[in-house]
Write a structure and sequence with these properties.
This protein is of the alpha/beta class. Helices cover 48% and strands 14% of the residues. The protein contains 20 helices and 17 strands. The protein has helices at residues 19-38, 54-63, 67-84, 98-113, 193-207, 213-225, 248-252, 259-276, 285-288, 306-319, 353-359, 362-371, 383-413, 425-446, 450-471, 473-479, 481-501, 507-514, 529-534, 556-566, and strands at residues 3-8, 42-49, 91-94, 117-127, 132-133, 139-142, 151-152, 169-173, 181-191, 230-231, 233-235, 255-257, 295-302, 329-333, 336-338, 341-342, 379-381. The two termini are 45 Å apart. Keywords: Aminoacyl-tRNA synthetase, ATP-binding, Cytoplasm, Ligase, Metal-binding, Nucleotide-binding, Protein biosynthesis, Zinc. ATP binds at residue 345. Is required not only for elongation of protein synthesis but also for the initiation of all mRNA translation through initiator tRNA(fMet) aminoacylation.
Length: 575
Amino acid sequence: MARHLITSALPYINGIKHLGNMVGSMLPADVYSRYMRQRGHDVLYICATDEHGTPAELAAKEAGLPVDEFCAQQHDAQKAVYDGFGLAFDYFGRSSSAQNVQITQTIARELKANGFIEERSIRQVYSNADGRFLPDRYIEGTCPHCGYDKARGDQCENCTRVLDPTDLIDARSAISGSSDLEVRETKHLFLLQSKLADEVAAWVDEHGKHWPTLASSIARKWLNEGLQDRAITRDLDWGVPVPADTWPDLAAEGKVFYVWFDAPIEYIGATKEWADQDPENRDWKSWWYDVDASVRYTEFMAKDNVPFHTVMFPATLLGTRDVWKKVDYVKAFNWLTYYGGKFSTSQKRGVFTDAALEVLPADYWRYFLMANAPESDDTSFTWEHFTATVNKDLADTLGNFVNRVLSFSRKRFGDEVPAGKAAGEAEERLGEEIARLLAEYEEHMDALQFRKAAAALRALWSAGNSYLEEKAPWLEIKSDQEAAALTLRTAMNLIHLYAIVSEPFIPASARAMRSAFALGEDTATWVGRGEAKALASVPAGTSFTVPPVLFAKITEEDLESYRQRFGGAEQNGAA
């Protein structure tokens, strides 16, 4: 089987993430990772907190903590939420790790040796009120392109255009709010992307033709606009230090690498963190350095991260002239909005992941988000849509099927799967339908088309309900107990099949369904077409229990309480 290296965009350290962050990277990566493991592939799913840069320092200052202590606390807090969502990372690291520092500095040295980093004098914004140079994210102002009045000095959050601090209108310090700014000369390192532009374009042409349109179009837009040389150091107290053995003057001035230089390298760094936990059995280089063709690397990210991962990071790796593994497939997502307006961490708009888990278990959120993943367009989260999806798909279609089959069988036949008649024409038709829908589900999962995969999964669940309505065991049992027993046994085999194939989307509920049956050697990781047709993996005589209700319906009272807590349509608006 192939080896699958999977990464999701690193969540930034300054606070718990909202549902838009979850569905734009980590959750789909987890769903895909789980699926590929079930299909027998060797999977390594790597992620980490992104801990450097201006917002970390500002958030630590606001919290009244040293930045390293703040980042350590926030890493643990975020990891707890991701555990609650059932994200099965192979390793969740930290970009402030010693491993990332080492690898980032090594890559920088290689780029300099190959003529792709040079030291330049530039004019940079200096805050007289703060007595320091201001890195780009320490400067706020109005975007000259879209008029957004809270744009940062490196990028406008609203229109995603890359900016320089001097582009901003009415610029001000993010530290003090002072507009007493002036431009002074200082020195920084530049990555000479212009010298690598043709190589990056050729690389995107070769690999990007298989990416989703969203990812490839953003990459080509950057390339068509022309790659500019980019400063990759900043004046900050917290970050990967410029190595003194290579740039002694800049190191003496306390320069650190720009967060967008070291953050993607943390994918490699986190893999080394993982390997260093068990060096006798784990080899990080087998995934990243001079790897064979069996390793397929897939990245998951929202559209604002695409330029850095499809242009800047590949340029960095290409410029080393070394044999680093580069991404094969970029799965990019549009925005999940909140009633049509942007989720906003800074303005606390929308549903944040810790609060989501306080309201309902993770599987409710996992299924809804993936069934409505913003793949082709932005998708709007509303409590009304969420409620309708949970009640229809999870509570009525899947949860009710499981409960009524097991409860009815237990009431009429006891705690063991009844035998009944041999399978007949209805069961043969059902098996063919299940095999067909399973193949459709696999096709969409293999293609990373998550909304279509969720629709195929829902169709699998619906097929069981259609079969149950056709056979009506509550009527059969009045005249033919053996026929009713066959129907229930077949339905129980469907429950077991659902448990296996639903696991990527709703892992906790899948475990509950599967553990309902006392199967001594239930080691199957997937369901083959022949097994799907036969529907016989749970034989007669197997004891079973009725699990608690899988999915409770959301009531009107619940819905109103959610609106009261989080806001509804009145939250609509730009961040």
